[in-house]
Design a protein that fits this description.
Blueprint lengths: L6 H16 L5 H11 L3 H17 L3 H8 L8 H21 L12 E2 L6 E4 L5 E4 L4 E6 L4 E13 L8 E5 L2 E5 L3 E7 L2 E8 L1 E6 L2 E6 L2 E6 L8 E2 L12 E8 H9 L5 E4 L8 E7 L3 H11 L2 E6 L2 E6 L2
Parallel strand pairs: 5-6, 15-18
Antiparallel strand pairs: 1-4, 2-3, 3-5, 4-5, 5-8, 6-7, 7-10, 8-9, 9-12, 10-11, 12-13, 14-16, 17-18
Length: 316
C-alpha cells in the first residue's frame, strides 16, 4: 500500500531545493541530490516540473531574487510563498506587457464576454453582432447613426441596411463604417484588424481613410493610417463563429494569443524567439486544451498548466 503524498508538500520540497541551487551556495552533491529526489516517483517528478516551470517564468524578477536571498529558516512553506509571489509577479508582468488587463470600460459596457464565452446579440435595427470570447463593447444608437464602441476583443457584424443611419464601429481611435455588410473587427491592444466577407467598409484612422471591399483585410494601430488592403479567403473570416480556429502559417505568438481567449487565466510564451514560428492547423474553439496538446506534440514546446497561467516553454 502506497502512502498518499500531499502535492503541496512535494512542491515545498522541490522549491526549497531549487532556491538553494540558485543561491550560489549549492554543491555538486546538492545538484545530485535534487536529481535523485526527482526520480523517486512520478509525483516527485511532477512537483519538480511544475516548480521549475514557475521558477523559470519569473526567476529574473526582484521578488524572486529577494526570496532566494532569504535564509531557509525564513522561507517557511516555500511552495505557498513562492506560488503567491510568482503568480503575482507573472500576472502583473504578463498582463501589463500584453495589454490583457480588462479596461475600466468593462464596468459600464453594454456587453461583456468572459474567457471561452461567445454570444449573439441582436440589435434594435435588425443587425446582429457575434461576440468572440473576452470581448467588451457598448451600443449607442441615435436618429442619425448606429454606433458600436469595441473596447477589447473581437466581434463579427452583420449589418441591416439603413442608408439614412451609417453603422460605425469605433475601435482604438479609428472608425469602421459600413452600410449593409458583414465584417469582423478584432482589437488586441492598440492594433485593430478588419476583415470583410460581404459588402464594403471604410476604415478611418490617423487622418486617413481606406475603402475595403469583400475578400479584403486591413489593420491599423491607434492614431496610425490603415495598412493597404490584402486578400483574404472569405470562407475563413471569423471561423470562430462557426466553432473552428483555422491557422495557415500563422506565427506561434498569434496562435497562442488566439487560444488565450478561450482559456481562463493567461497563456504565456516564455521564450519570445519562438513567437515567429509558423503554425498551421484546424482546431475546435470549444477544446483549446486539445489545440495546446497538438502544439506540444508537433512543435518543440512544453506546456505547463498552473493556476491562472499556462506556460509555453521550449523543450529541454
Amino acid at each position: 500500500m502506497t502512502d498518499t503524498v500531499d502535492p503541496f508538500e512535494l512542491e515545498d520540497q522541490a522549491i526549497e531545493m531549487l532556491v538553494h541551487l540558485q543561491s550560489g551556495r549549492a554543491t555538486a552533491a546538492d545538484h545530485l541530490a535534487y536529481e535523485r529526489w526527482c526520480q523517486r516517483s512520478e509525483a516527485h517528478a511532477l512537483a519538480a516540473r511544475k516548480s521549475e516551470a514557475l521558477w523559470g517564468a519569473f526567476a529574473h524578477t526582484p521578488k524572486a531574487q529577494q526570496f532566494v536571498a532569504l535564509s531557509p529558516r525564513k522561507r517557511r512553506r516555500p511552495a505557498r510563498a513562492l506560488w503567491a509571489v510568482g503568480l503575482a509577479a507573472c500576472l502583473s508582468l504578463v498582463m501589463i506587457s500584453a495589454g490583457l488587463l480588462r479596461p475600466w470600460s468593462a464596468l459600464y459596457a453594454d456587453q461583456v464576454t468572459d474567457a471561452g464565452e461567445r454570444r449573439e446579440v441582436r440589435l434594435q435595427d435588425g443587425s446582429v453582432v457575434w461576440m468572440n470570447a473576452d470581448t467588451v463593447l457598448s451600443v449607442g444608437y441615435s436618429q442619425n447613426r448606429r454606433g458600436i464602441t469595441l473596447y477589447q476583443g473581437e466581434a463579427l457584424f452583420e449589418v441591416a441596411k439603413d442608408p439614412s443611419r451609417p453603422f460605425i464601429v469605433h475601435a482604438a481611435q479609428g472608425d469602421v463604417q459600413a452600410v449593409g455588410t458583414r465584417f469582423d473587427v478584432n482589437q488586441r491592444g492598440d492594433e485593430v484588424t478588419v476583415q470583410v466577407s460581404e459588402g464594403i467598409v471604410q476604415l478611418s484612422s490617423g487622418g486617413q481613410s481606406l475603402r475595403l471591399p469583400a475578400g479584403q483585410s486591413s489593420a491599423y494601430r491607434r492614431g496610425v493610417a490603415p495598412q493597404p488592403g490584402k486578400a483574404v479567403d472569405v470562407q475563413n473570416v471569423a471561423t470562430w463563429q462557426r466553432g473552428k480556429l483555422i491557422f495557415n502559417a500563422r506565427p506561434l505568438g498569434d496562435v497562442l494569443a488566439e487560444l488565450d481567449r478561450y482559456i481562463p487565466g493567461i497563456v504565456y510564451l516564455t521564450d519570445k524567439t519562438l513567437a515567429a514560428r509558423r503554425i498551421s492547423g484546424i482546431f475546435e474553439v470549444d477544446d483549446p486544451q486539445a489545440a495546446l496538446a497538438v502544439l506540444e506534440q508537433t512543435q518543440p514546446l512544453r506546456i505547463t498548466r498552473l493556476p491562472l497561467i499556462t506556460l509555453v516553454r521550449p523543450k529541454d
